[in-house]
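for the writeup, i need someone to sanity check this before i put it in the appendix. the sequnce is what the collaborator sent (i think, or maybe the updated version? ugh). structure was predicted straight from it, no edits. if anything looks off just tell me and ill rerun, i have time this weekend
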Amino acid sequence: MKILYVVIPCYNEEEVLNETSKQLKEKMTTLIKSKKIAKESKVLFVNDGSKDKTWDIIEKLTKEDKLFAGVKLSRNKGHQNALLAGLMTAKEHADMAISMDADLQDDINVIDLMLDKYEDGYEIVYGVRGSRKKDSFFKRFTAQSFYKIMKALGVDIIYNHADCRLMSKRALECLNEFKEVNLFLRGIVPQIGLKNTIVYYDRNPRFAGKSKYPLKKMLSFAFDGITSFSIKPLSLILTLGVLILFISIIIMIYSLVVKILGNTVPGWAFITISIWFIGGLQMISIGIIGEYIGKIYSETKHRPRYLIEETIINN
């Protein structure tokens, strides 16, 4: 039987952890009794520098039941880094790992579907939302736009897939070869290749607490994903520059013709609009280039993506 680690990144999740651990314990116990996974399998909580009692709860769970394990990062490093820390820890102990959110929005019954696909020989199994009907119009529109934009920019990404996935030990070892500091796992994992498939599930409302991804953070995450995996924005800047040059030549010819015909007008509004338009475009272009330069700067420093302060795994 294979050892499974369920990796759960946590940031200020004290309101949901007790219920999450309860439901996962029931699921894991059932899977162990049915001999679908080994008795050494665990639920691994990763504390991402939480400011509440999240780590205290994790410590308590690990003392009460060896099914639970914990990793404490030295400080808050963000969801993607915390998830990577958990996966890399699981790699050393498990034959496969499933990553899920702590808020119970990922249906834990998807674990059964993923294990079935793993037994069929798949090394990576993506959990994909079957529907977004429960989302608000704004949430649904922005999420769908994000995936479509990423696809249009040439990023290999699974539509409607977040970070709920199964990865085999070999897939985790391959993931460990990706050394970039600017992590966007939804874009990195498809780069691994290996035999993969998709399972569909319905995403539940958050059990308790507040979302850790407000609009500002979601937009930042989306922009990081785009600039980490596509250089097309830089190509678009060049295209826009050529287009504006072409338009400016037409305007110059038009101005000369009007001058020759003696129909000159002050044209204050046109000149003002042109200056503001071109100036704004230049600022946006410099900003996009700056983002890429900033990412290059971060990568060249080779700073650790996370530092583990404490690990609790009871055998």
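The longest strand covers residues 161-168. Residues 268-301 form the longest helix (34 residues).
thx in advance!!
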